[in-house]
Amino acid sequence: MNSPKLRLTRRNFLKLCSVGVLSAAIPSFSFSKALVNESKIKLGRVAQEGWPVFAEPNQNARRCYSLKFDQIIPIIETIKQTEEANQGETWYRVADGEYVRSAFIQVVENRRNVSQEPIQAIGSLGEITVPAIDVYLQPRVQKTRRRYYYGSTFWVKTRVMDEFGVPWYELPDEINGIPYFVRAYAVHLMNPEEIAPLSAEVPPDQKRILVDLRVQRAIALESNREVFSTLISSGLPATFTPTGTFLTNRKRPSRRMYLVSGNPKMDYDFPGVPWVSYLTLKGIAFHGSYWHANWGKPMSHGCIEMTPEDAKWIYRWTTPVVPFDEPYHIEETGTRVDVLSGY
If we measure between CA atoms, which residue out of 229, 253, 241, 239 comes closest to residue 340? Predict the structure, then answer.
């Protein structure tokens, strides 16, 4: 007997999403008007409060309503604008006659995990695989204001069971050492094969990355042959990305990045920043970002930001190779990076 399907209106979808982060799993649903294969529907997490929904993929169109921070939305269709006024703009259709700009929509998955693997004595590297997860000071009690987001990475210290036998992971803060806990289903424990070096047979001196700030793009070259290219977000005018030639000789798979300057507009605190490949001793680096998706536009405090997936590719492809069980690695040399001016 076939199970009944839910007619997915915007209201019904948002109602489903309000029960935790898509509840225990994404329910089976179908769209009544749009002919869309369920398996191809993507999810997006809203990374900015009040992000507007328009009646057409155009900022001059009528505004339908505003989205809330951390709201989960369906991505039915991706639309790349070609008109001169919207050149390079990407939009997502979330329902019939409802569109959002992609700049603050993080494309996410809701992959739950079950693992009995022992945690290494030095800790195991874990990756968040759900849109967002609440963070606690003790399992099931003392919820904090923190949330960890899809694509972020952390070192897992221990696995503990709460009073109901539900597994949790302890993820100590690397700056202050405070132990934080999240439900274990939200964290995928990584294995060495997942971050094994890419193009390891290519001589290190034949690898090079070109970062063109003018077009906001990073290009990886092997013997001057392009093997990878992605849009980036470099530094804003007030916090520009330095130009010149650098080496990726320092790396770490996870880092809490924060700034306390006294100026609320400049301050930030991002735990679990994934796949960090440093270029300077002052902290300028390639890394993944989960707090925006405005690729192709300057957004950072000087770093070269990209999707977590792209940052992971850079991390694996560049030298030096970081041993799987090391939270921080440094050598005298690394892959050459040429950053060209955008002016």
Answer: 241
Cβ atoms of 95 and 76 closer than 8 Å: yes
Between CA 49 and CA 179 the distance in angstroms is 29
Residue range of the domain that includes 285: 195-340
Instruction: Report the C-alpha gap between 211 and 49 in whole angstroms.
Output: 31
CB 43 within 8 A of CB 110: yes
6 to 16, 41, 43, 73, 286: CA distances (angstroms):
11, 15, 17, 16, 43
Tokens coding 2: 């076939």
- In sequence order, which residues have a C-beta less than 8 Å from that of residue 327 and are 6 or more positions away? 122, 123, 155, 174, 252, 253, 254
Q: Considering 190, 210, 225, which residue would you say is the last residue of a domain?
A: 190
pLDDT tens digits along 145-169: 999 999 999 999 999 999 999 999 9
Q: Of the ranges 19-33, 73-87, 265-279, 315-329, which one carries the lowest mean pLDDT score? A: 19-33
Give the number of domains in the chain: 3
